[in-house]
Amino acid sequence: MEIGESVTLLLAVCISSLVLLSAWRQIVRIRNLPPGPFPLPVLGNLLELKANKMLLSFKKLSEKYGPVYTVHLGPRRVVVLYGFAAVKEALVDHAEEFSGRGLLATVDDFVKGLGVAFANGERWRQLRRFSLSTLRNFGMGKRSIEERIQEEAQCLLEEFRKTKGEPFDPTFFLSRSVSNVICSIVFGQRFEYEDQQFLDLMHETSVPPLTCTIPLQMYEMFSWIMKYLPGPHVRMFQNLQDIYDFIEKRIKINQESLDPANPRDYIDCFLVQMEKIANPSSEFHFKTLIMTALNLFIAGTETVSSTLRYGLLILMKYPDVQAKVVREIDEVIGQNRLPSAEDRSRMPYTDAVIHEIQRFSDVIPMSLTHAVTQDTQFRGYTIPKGTDVVPLLTSALRDPSCFNEPEKFNPSHFLDEQGHFKKNDAFIPFSTGKRVCAGEGLARMELFVFFTCILQNFVVKSPVAPSDIDLTPPVSGFANIPPPYKLCAIPR
């Protein structure tokens, strides 16, 4: 054998050995994954997952495979965390390893890793620090966030009064008011409720969010095929583009009138930061601003308005609970001033009811997908870097080891024997760990002020008997959408 042939053979053996070693390592990594049902080619575990009952499917799999298991959404491998202990251990005790943002196929092609909600790595860290600081300090004009919420609550009450006690659907009443709060913060202004551009935006954000419809859940599994097919995802992408275009125009208006010494809103603060850094490689650039503002606008509208909508339905089903809240409002606040966030500490029952509304309504049961930032050892398993992880928030909010009646609405979950408010670590509707919702403080303030303002001025009653009110969400997946209903706002 000639020397050249020997060298070629040696190289071939070396390359083959490296390929086999790499394949062996992959097999070992996969073999040490959390257990789960065996996936079929292409379909994955589609036969074990009911698209219209995804949360129930996840629960049944946890009963068979334990609180940490692997499931395949089509060809996509995902690790699921079920129960408060597993969710906390991952997101809090192993916070850095589980801090990545995983795939959300329905929006990933659109957001392209931009915006505070979907960014990763240093981009995410910079945007999150800036957003938290800006929302916390709110260096935008002379009015505080609370004053803006109170102003909008007054506008909402006026709309309720116009109904004159007749039945009405509160959906757009609530979404317009909540959206105006985030518009005031991001864009520096609120919109009149009949403003056509504002109504168009409300319509575009009212489409069932992300993966909560069956076709969009299928898109999560088979995006590589469905992106080329017609369906509701096409409409959703167009709605996102319309919101994107609106925000882009608003930013350009701000740029023309920007006074760096007096920022008026979140957009101004971001523009000032862009000028301050003035570095092409910085994460503070025009497209990131558009996408972050879009993140804040959608998240700041849908989750709070859905919780308010669910809460009013719950209070109509349980009029005795509503009556106790009203009594506490009368005792602590009275009728002569607006509720404020500082009242919460003196209103334990109302605080407990709002917490229980958030727990029971469970409007974001699945959380946004996480991803591990490195090969991670977790509960004896190896989760390879980049693996998507779904922490099921609903499994914490309804964990029987943390709540004694998890499937029932019961404000006592947050009250001790003396009637004082009682914290519960498993209360994580905003998620937990490094990816906890950046707008948690804002949302909590909105829920308290809106609920107390409404009940300070109205008794909410259903046109049907409380016993006939069904609290079951008609759509349940990434989000729990409250069932449609009408209410009567009877002035007190």
UniProtKB/TrEMBL annotation:
Main location: endoplasmic reticulum
Subcellular location: Endoplasmic reticulum membrane; Microsome membrane
A Pfam family reported for this protein in Swiss-Prot or TrEMBL: p450
GO CC annotation: endoplasmic reticulum membrane
Keyword Endoplasmic reticulum belongs to the record: yes
PANTHER family, alphabetized: CYTOCHROME P450, CYTOCHROME P450 508A4-RELATED
Official protein name in the record: Cytochrome P450 family 2 subfamily G member 59
Species in which this protein is naturally found: Sphenodon punctatus
Recorded name of the encoding gene: CYP2G59
